[in-house]
Design goal:
By secondary structure, this protein is α/β, with parallel strands linked by helices. The protein folds into three domains: 40 residues; 240 residues, P-loop containing nucleotide triphosphate hydrolases (Rossmann fold, 3-Layer(aba) Sandwich); 243 residues, Nucleotidyltransferase, domain 5 (2-Layer Sandwich), CATH 3.30.420.240. Helix content is 40%, strand content 15%. Helix 15 crosses helix 16, helix 17 packs across helix 20 and helix 18 crosses helix 20.
């Protein structure tokens, strides 16, 4: 081949290679252009979704629009709203407008579901965002919002999902969702409040579940860390009372307060309990009313209507006192919520309310150690004598002294008391209609530094009023620690009080039963337990402990909680000293 031919071939090859390179660059640039267009479209869509969260929830999670916007359902056209109108739409609009949100809701109205949708929306739509979900206990996070997140996540399927965490870029927390335990014990709360101040991001969302159980310190720390324009807080839960963390947060000026009533829920409005399976229904609301009897009962207002309850001015025991007493018990519990008796000082004691099960009532036994109520039991009582034997067996098994067992000895309770006497027991036979006990307490005079006895100035119409009043004082003053038992709470909040002729009267058991349609058995047993849980000196006949005819020959005695004589069968009858 001639040199000129070789040169021409070389030029052709170069031109061909250049053409190929040019075409390749066009393709690559085209791809880059398409990629850029696609990225720009995604950014535009993300920007759109930032202000249209319902569309995102529908498009990305496959949730039916009417599950969020209830007014799309025709049955709502004539519905009269009991709580906030169209609450989920109200919540989402508030967040879009940089408002904080407080959701006080009834039970079973999908509060946690909408919170899970919101946290995924925020995570996807705001680049490098940080979302923090919190609750008092880790178990609550796993059981509630993270269970919902886990159920929705396969539809979303971005980032890396692990225990209580989702990271958009694996190994990096800058763009993430995190579960954070707020804590319940004092040391946990202190540590959590300190850590809560460390969350910072341009786009920050904090969601608190079970907010009434989140401490003020942790909530304040969250509020203090939300300093940037797009730092949001959403708090939700069943309201306990108007002094709880959730309700106080709802009163802040930046907060959109939303109430979700069970009577506004789709299952109820549509009269279809399976429209949203496992959620609130007409039957559920009817059962609650049957349980609490009174539609104005604080627990009914909270659990059925999402209303933060007030109490009547004549209510003897306040709901907030019970909540505070419940919180005090936590320090004595193990990880499963059971009382750790080794942590509790004092003697084991029992309060027993006897009932006639033929009338539909149940007997109740309250057990406690020291000032901590450790168990609450209610059960049918067809035989009061058999109940006496049951109490005796427990006293033997747990080495409970006679003076630490208080039994309602009125009516059918006489059978229980008599059976215990037959078995050699000399328990406290509580006769509520007797005169109040003349309590003597030792106090130190500030001037003389000498101890003297005093008699409280309160005057009561009978022993029942005195015992209930003392229980209310102990709860108000932070003396007692009690478990979370809604029936016990309902019983303790039931009695009303008034004064007549200068004496304090507590509503009788018969009056309460007539008003509520049930007897406050757990509440009465709790009051008896509180009355005998430690010892103080009284006029013995006033306590219904010995016959009045023997009163003249029975000197006043004083026992303290460490007096062995006071804990042995047949010992003199005393009640408690504080």
């Amino acid at each position: 081949m001639r040199y000129s031919d070789q040169n021409n071939l070389s030029n052709i090859q170069i031109q061909a290679a250049a053409e190929l390179e040019f075409q390749k660059r066009i393709v690559e640039e085209g791809i880059e252009h398409e990629q850029k267009k696609q990225w720009e479209a995604e950014q535009e869509l993300r920007k759109y979704y930032q202000t249209h969260p319902i569309d995102w929830i529908v498009d990305k999670l496959g949730v039916k629009r009417e599950m969020i916007d209830w007014e799309l359902l025709p049955e709502y056209q004539k519905h009269r709203w009991d709580g906030t109108r169209n609450p989920f739409v109200t919540v989402l609009n508030a967040l879009v407008n940089n408002r904080w949100v407080a959701i006080e809701g009834a039970t079973g109205v999908s509060k946690t579901f909408i919170a899970a949708c919101i946290v995924l929306w925020f995570f996807d739509c705001f680049e490098n965002s940080m979302s923090v979900t919190t609750a008092p206990k880790e178990g609550q996070l796993n059981l509630h919002i993270w269970k919902e997140i886990g159920s929705l996540y396969p539809r979303y399927n971005k980032g890396k999902y692990s225990n209580l965490k989702i990271q958009m870029i694996p190994g990096m927390n800058d763009w993430s969702i995190t579960g954070f335990v707020a804590g319940v014990r004092a040391e946990e709360v202190t540590a959590s409040a300190r850590k809560a101040q460390g969350f910072h991001a341009e786009h920050l969302l904090i969601i608190t579940e079970e907010t009434p159980g989140v401490s003020d310190a942790v909530m304040t720390a969250f509020q203090n860390t939300c300093v940037a324009p797009h730092n949001l807080i959403m708090a939700l839960g069943n309201p306990d009372n108007q002094f709880d963390t959730l309700h106080k947060f709802s009163q802040l000026s930046r907060v959109e307060a939303v109430t979700i009533s069970g009577f506004d829920y789709p299952n109820v409005v549509l009269r279809n309990p399976n429209y949203i399976p496992g959620a609130q229904s007409e039957q559920g609301l009817a059962d609650m009313l049957d349980r609490y009897k009174n539609p104005e009962h604080p627990l009914y207002l909270s659990r059925a209507r999402g209303i933060s309850p007030k109490q009547a001015k004549d209510a003897l025991i306040r709901y907030e006192w019970l909540i505070e007493s419940r919180e005090r018990r936590i320090q004595y519990e193990d990880e499963k919520g059971n009382p750790n008796l080794e942590k509790i000082k004092g003697s084991i004691s029992l309060g027993v309310d006897v009932a006639n099960s033929e009338d539909g009532d149940e007997a109740s036994i309250i057990e406690g150690k020291g000032n901590v109520c450790t168990s609450v039991e209610s059960f049918p009582c067809p035989d009061s004598n058999e109940l006496g034997r049951t109490v005796n067996e427990r006293m033997i098994a747990k080495k409970i002294g006679d003076l630490y067992v208080g039994v309602d000895g009125v009516g059918v309770g006489a059978g229980t008391v008599n059976e215990l006497k037959r078995l050699g027991r000399n328990i406290v036979n509580i006769i509520s209609s007797e005169s109040p006990a003349e309590i003597q307490e030792e106090t130190e005079d500030e001037e003389s530094k000498e101890k003297k006895t005093i008699i409280p100035v309160e005057q009561f119409n009978n022993l029942r009023s005195q015992m209930w009043w003392q229980c209310s004082l102990d709860l108000r003053n932070g003396v007692l620690a009690i478990p979370l038992d809604e029936e016990l709470f309902a019983d303790l909040m039931s009695p009303r009080w008034f004064t007549r002729n200068g004496k304090i009267h507590i509503e009788s058991k018969e009056e309460i039963k007539k008003r509520l349609g049930r007897s406050p058995n757990r509440g009465d047993a709790f009051v008896y337990w509180n009355w005998v849980r430690s010892l103080r000196s009284v006029e013995p006949a006033m306590q219904g402990m010995i016959d009045k005819k023997d009163q003249q020959d029975q000197p006043k005695q004083r026992y303290d909680i460490h007096n062995e004589q006071a804990r042995t069968p047949g010992a003199g009858r005393m009640v408690r000293s504080f």
